[in-house]
């Protein structure tokens, strides 16, 4: 008997390339797109180690925990790093980036996270991209949490290295990921003696042995199940329509925000301004005197499938994340999430308006 997962025919190079092309269409890019055989941290790290070296001067924008990690990798590569950190309840502005570049004109690399699922904010990449391009620096973007939740347009925005993963808004597998690479970024990597070569982290290996050879032979046996899952996930997005999928995420974020405000009880959107809030996930601030972990545990005891989680690290006590992404970006999930959180608050003796929240969600869902 053949097993549906175990007894598959090998994934051909042609098939692999066709999946890359479909991912490239999703990003509306004509740059090279490399599908990396690991979670998104693989291309995120590979792209930094490929381009940064002693002599690199980087502006590292920190709007959440990932920005901090990128700064550590850059310093590890010997780069001089100027951190531009903004409070996690807001977004960075193009003006702040412009000012940082003016202060340190030698900056030749800018790293930015588009949307942060961990903090719930999203940054104005189109405007920032224009500033970075004018300055001439290489532009590195983590779009893992934004792809399929809001527009991600590396070509239009002048992004040189744009990393995506399928496990958030795309509703796909976590074990493979992708990065689009501009001609400028390839040049920087080729000239970088320190760039990983003959390494799992190497993008240059994929350029030299896969892309430059016309994508005829794979470097090693691919993660076949994950590649097939990625293909199925892109197929599902194509049949729903990328615009419809992004609209679903925008509605989920707007409805969660409106419902939270109507619920009351001291529960508040963590990101102050709606325009800075990411469509992929909505973060909430637990009412003073409560513990986010306890509220989430109580809500999940009522409905264990809800996409609720307490914030990570230092935010664990105060932040609740509503991960309304992928198949969870539905009105029903938003309604149930707020009802469960409202129930947990009521149980703690806090007055909430459950019916008001329900109406606000319905009204805000476009
Ligand atoms: C989710 C996410 C990633 C991928 O990390 P995981 O925690 O492994 O899912 C990378 N960057 C950002 C901004 C993310 O939100």
TrEMBL record:
Keywords: Aminotransferase, Pyridoxal phosphate, Transferase. InterPro entries: Aminotrans_V_dom, PyrdxlP-dep_Trfase, PyrdxlP-dep_Trfase_major, PyrdxlP-dep_Trfase_small, SP_NH2Trfase/AEP_transaminase. Its cofactor is pyridoxal 5'-phosphate. One of its GO terms (biological process) is glycine biosynthetic process, by transamination of glyoxylate. Residues 75-256 form the Aminotransferase class V domain. The keyword Cytoplasm does not apply. It comes from the Bacteria. The modification N6-(pyridoxal phosphate)lysine is found at residue 168. Pfam families: Aminotran_5. Substrate binds at residue 321. Belongs to the class-V pyridoxal-phosphate-dependent aminotransferase family. This is Aminotransferase class V-fold PLP-dependent enzyme. It comes from Streptomyces tabacisoli.
